[in-house]
Amino acid sequence: MSDTKYLFRRNRTWWVKVAVPAALRDELGYDLRRSLRTSDLDEARQAREPVVAEFRRTIADAERRRRRMCHEPLDSGSGFVVTAREDFSDVTFLLEVHHPQLARAAQPGQFVLVLAHERGERIPLTIADFDRDAGTFTMVIQAVGKTTREMQLRCQVGSTLHAVVGPMGCPSDIAGAAKVVCVGGGLGIASIYPQLRAFQERGAFVIGIVGFRTEELIFWEDKFRRHCDELIICTDDGSVGIKGMVTDGIEVALARHPDVDELVAIGPPVMMRACAEATRPHGIRTTVSLNPIMVDGTGMCGGCRVTVGDEMKFTCVDGPEFDAHQVDFADLMSRQRRFRDKEQFAAERWARSLETDTADAPGGGRR
Amino acid sequence: MTKKTIRTIPQERTTIPEQPVAERIHNFCEVALGYRPEDARREAERCLLCPEPACVLACPVAIDIPGFIEQICLGKDRAAYDIVADANLLPAICGRVCPQEDQCELVCPVGDTLEPVAIGRLERWVGDRALAEGWDTGAAVERSGLKVAIVGSGPASLACAADMAKAGCEVIVYEALHEPGGVLRYGIPEFRLPNHVIDAEIANLTKLGVTVECNTLVGRLFTIEQLVDEMGFSAVFVGTGAGSPRFMGIPGESLHGVLSANELLTRCNLMGALEFPAYDTPIDIGTRVAVIGSGNTAMDALRVSLRAGAEQVACVYRRSREESPARLEELIHAEEEGVEFHWLTAPVEILGDDDGAVRAMRCIRMELGEPDESGRRRPIPIEGSEYDFETETVVYAIGTRANPVIGQTSKIALDERGYIRVDEHLATSMAGVYAGGDIVTGAATVILAMGAGRRAAAAMKAYLGIRDTAVVYDERTSADRRWFGIDAGERNFTRLRLPADDAVGVGGT
Ligand SMILES: Cc1cc2nc3c(=O)[nH]c(=O)nc-3n(C[C@H](O)[C@H](O)[C@H](O)COP(=O)(O)OP(=O)(O)OC[C@H]3O[C@@H](n4cnc5c(N)ncnc54)[C@H](O)[C@@H]3O)c2cc1C
Ligand SMILES: Cc1cc2nc3c(=O)[nH]c(=O)nc-3n(C[C@H](O)[C@H](O)[C@H](O)COP(=O)(O)OP(=O)(O)OC[C@H]3O[C@@H](n4cnc5c(N)ncnc54)[C@H](O)[C@@H]3O)c2cc1C
Ligand code: SF4
Ligand code: FES
Q1: Of A296, A307, A349, the CB nearest to B266
Q2: Is pTM, for the whole model, over 0.80?
Q3: Do the Cβ atoms of B407 and B241 come closer than 8 Å?
Q4: Which end of chain B lies in a sparser environment, N or C, as judged by fewer CB atoms within 10 Å?
């Protein structure tokens, strides 16, 4: 059999072609090819080796660059430096960022928009804690898609984020309530912390309710205990505290304290809706912090619009907190799915690009 | 030079080379390619160099138009640039996006018999020459020691920043987004105003000593009050724009696929969504797009949609073509590029599918009735003329409101619509705080915003006691660039009053 590995003929001229691994096709195209300017197969075979070697080097270089990009800590040279990181589980992690002005200005209930790198997406994340003396603020992030997973992989202590802007949104209203229930679940567990602390500092009686899947995933328990008069932990499997959802915790709390005058809930929309339904019969003032898709966070795009009591509101400037009994949750959940296909595509592509190992690039003119 | 007359000048307006339609709808390169040197000289010859030029009066920033055109005729491009830049630091931008046909070119007497002088194209040419040659206006002025904060980085802010820096102040521009430029950056697309032009013009500002700090949402990170009371700024200019999009309140507005023109444009221009997945921000416009409204913003949304791969792009407007507020050039470009126009049509409902996505838009036909308060004939729905219009994306380009954050976080007085209230010097209700641009007037134009920025700067200089010889000797003619024997190049800035702490020091000795 004749050896035509890496070779193909166009018109009568022999060409070399080396396939490009999927992860690099954005950069290099489907394959690398070059004419050998000969119609003679033997000559072509002889000329082939250096060209193939060169193409392999090109691919290996691109792969090295890509890997460096995928795995290397983010470093945009900005002043937004990650000063601490903690991993609570395989999906939940904490980042502390140096930003003295922001730490000074932050109020409970506010959030920041983060652009991890130049080509990234602006994503909103709640300010889960702030330390005005140290000049830092904290975010607790769930890695759910491309951007958050990339941050999980690439944000190390010393990394810099391309852009951080905030604090955004109206601060929570923590005056007034004498006995308050603060509920956090999913991505809202840490987000509820600044409010709970503020309520306590204001002298309210604070009942904290936080929901986790299981015991190992519990974090910040001490912080919560310190600032709660009563802490109810709910776990899906009952390994700690109440077995069940945060709504089960709410039932317990309300049974014990019929005089609760406010409930604040942060978490996934389904959870917040369930909380709203749990308090509705009791007529307890209930506040939720909504999390629609955002772009600018300054009231300029309207992407974050939500329906609250038949009125259109922009979450980033009118919220993020709204009266739970007025919020159209179905609308919110539907709008969160706006880009589902693209998000899924991006997340899968990201996962794939981490896996592909091109140390031994597949050879041959595979179509 | 012999006096030119309407008969001796080139009769035909010099056309500007454009990218062919078939090509340009597939790319984001500029549509209008700009004059070549010979085009510019020829067009410059068409100017009559009127002794009392109407064009200058019609220019919101009073560029000495015959002055700079004369320099182009003489082949002195650098001198032409200096004259333009004296009034307008962003000529490459304004030459591209100003509605000259309603301003300087509208009143040019050449236009009475022929087509008016293409002032805008000449301005752009001068601006582009300067960018290509790296010219700047780097006026070396003595530092006054006064600090001025500028909130927002749109054209109003940039113009104000330039003037304050030229007057020797230390100027810091605070912008909420991660890139400066305001609408120039996130709104106006690349094919009308390339980003490198904005970058270059802003780089010129930094050469003047202006510092631009992005990622700073004033009002939340610190307030206007803090700028004045705690952060040591002697004066503040607020140019936060009117970018908050309006919706109509018809059923179906929360369906996926309904978005504001600002969201579409921001995703594409600022966030690079058209290069998804190389950039992380997604956009999904499907194959059919309907844009509601017919202003410049609508034209940009329509033309971006075409370039993003939509096959059928329609503009829905409740009045007729004559009433369309878009610049004629943009309208014609959009028509050439294959946008379908549905004049005298208004949406009444957006229809969705089971998945919450847009399926169609229900429209009603309109007819024009009596003129309303704006002088345009009021559209009246024709009963029973509803019809469904299939589309996957509905874009709202029906106007905007004031950006809300400053209003929410400061005590500056607003009017009933949320815009900042100012007096004739553009001073707000707070001492030392001035405002201008869209945040005062509502959505207007780049050049009006710049004009406001400059007027505010003049008032701020007066407030700070900085005297500017250009203001003192304001008698200028285009023929003689000297004012009462003082050369324009020599203008200096004299402080009338010392900053407060210096004054204390002086008093102590
Ligand atoms: C005010 C606010 C506060 C938030 N606080 C936190 C927090 O403290 N911790 C945390 O883990 N998450 C928080 N979120 C959610 C977080 O922004 C999203 O999880 C993140 O944007 C997902 O991006 P991704 O690319 O990783 O995932 P994707 O795969 O892109 O999306 C996953 C889900 O996240 C949502 N999402 C995607 N892009 C955006 C966007 N630009 N803006 C908002 N939502 C988006 C979508 O609804 C989608 O269903 C908050 C959201 C809001 C609006
Ligand atoms: C799509 C589109 C196309 C247009 N086309 C044209 C055209 O062809 N010709 C023309 O003449 N005009 C055009 N216009 C109008 C023109 O762009 C505006 O009138 C002009 O940009 C207004 O300038 P500005 O400086 O007042 O505000 P903007 O350009 O709106 O800038 C305001 C800036 O302030 C920032 N900001 C807001 N709040 C804060 C805060 N609290 N802290 C810090 N920063 C803040 C914003 O992020 C923004 O960058 C167009 C407008 C749009 C939307
Ligand atoms: S009005 Fe027209 S002809 Fe007269 S100076 Fe201006 S541009 Fe020239
Ligand atoms: S995120 Fe753009 S308006 Fe709220």
Answers
A1: A296
A2: yes
A3: no
A4: C
Flag whether pLDDT at B141 surpasses 60.
yes
Which of these, A342, A350, A343, lies nearest to A23 by C-alpha position?
A350
Q: Which fold has domain B21-133?
A: Fumarate Reductase Iron-sulfur Protein; Chain B, domain 2 (1.10.1060)
Q: Compute the distance between CA of residue A195 and CA of residue A210 in angstroms, rounded to an integer.
A: 13
Which region, left, alpha or beta, applies to residue A119 given φ > 0 means left and ψ of -120 to 50 means alpha? alpha
User: Within 13 Å and on the Cβ side, how many CA atoms surround A130?
Assistant: 23
B contacts of A293 (beta carbons < 8 Å): none
- Cβ neighbours, 10 Å, residue B458: 19
Cβ-based neighbour number of residue B162 at 10 Å: 27
For residues A199 and B274, the model is more confident at A199
CA distance B424 to B427: 7
Q: What pLDDT score does A322 carry? A: 94
pLDDT per position as a tens digit, A214-262:
888 888 888 889 998 999 888 888 788 888 888 888 888 888 888 888 9
The CATH number of the domain covering residues in B147-243+402-464: 3.50.50.60
pLDDT at B467: 67
A333 to chain B: closest CA residue: B356
Say if ligand 2 is within 6 A of residue B410 CB. no
CATH number of A80-168: 2.40.30.10
Nearest ligand 4 atom, CA A299: 3
Q: What average pLDDT does this structure show over B209-237?
A: 91
**Most informative mutation of B269, B296, B440 for ligand 2 (most atoms within 8 A of CB):** B296
Q: State pLDDT tens for residues B254-273.
A: 888 999 999 999 999 889 88
Closest residue in A to B266 (Cα) is: A301
pLDDT 10s digits, B19-55: 777 777 777 777 877 888 888 888 888 888 888 888 8
Residues whose CB is less than 8 angstroms from the CB of residue A308 and which lie 6 or more positions away in sequence, other chains included:
A322, A323, A326, A327, A328
Contact pairs from chain A to chain B, CB under 8 Å: 132
Kindly report the average pLDDT of chain B as a whole number: 82
pLDDT score of B142: 66
Chain A contact for B211 (CB, 8 A cutoff): no
Q: State the pLDDT at residue B151.
A: 95
- Ligand 4 pocket test target in A123, A301, A308, A312 with most atoms within 8 Å of CB: A301
Q: Coil, strand or helix: which one is B129?
A: helix
Pairwise CA distance, residues B339 & B313, whole Å: 5
- Assess contact for A267 and A326: CB atoms under 8 A: no
* B477 at interface of A, judged by CB pairs closer than 8 A: no
Residue A139 has pLDDT above 90, yes or no: yes
> pLDDT-based confidence at B106, cuts 50/70/90?
confident
Which among A258, A271, A257, A279 has a CA at the least distance from the CA of A325? Answer: A279
Structure tokens of A164? 């951080």
Edge-to-edge strand ranges of the sheet holding A31-35 = A7-10, A13-19, A31-35
The rounded percent of chain B whose pLDDT value lies above 90 is 18
CATH class, domain B246-399, is alpha beta
Across the interface, do B280 and A162 touch by the CB < 8 Å criterion? Answer: no
User: Ligand nearest B447 Cα, by number?
Assistant: 2
CATH class of A179-336: alpha beta
H, E, C per residue of B290-358: EEECCCHHHHHHHHHHHHCCCCEEEEECCCCHHHCCCCHHHHHHHHHCCCEEECCEEEEEEEECCCCEE
In the reported structure, the alpha carbon of residue A294 is separated from the centroid of ligand 4 by a whole-number distance in angstroms of 5
Position B483 confidence tier, pLDDT thresholds 50, 70, 90:
very low
Probe target for ligand 1 pocket from A91, A138, A144, with the most ligand atoms within 8 Å of CB: A144
Q: Where are the domains of chain A?
A: 7-71, 80-168, 179-336
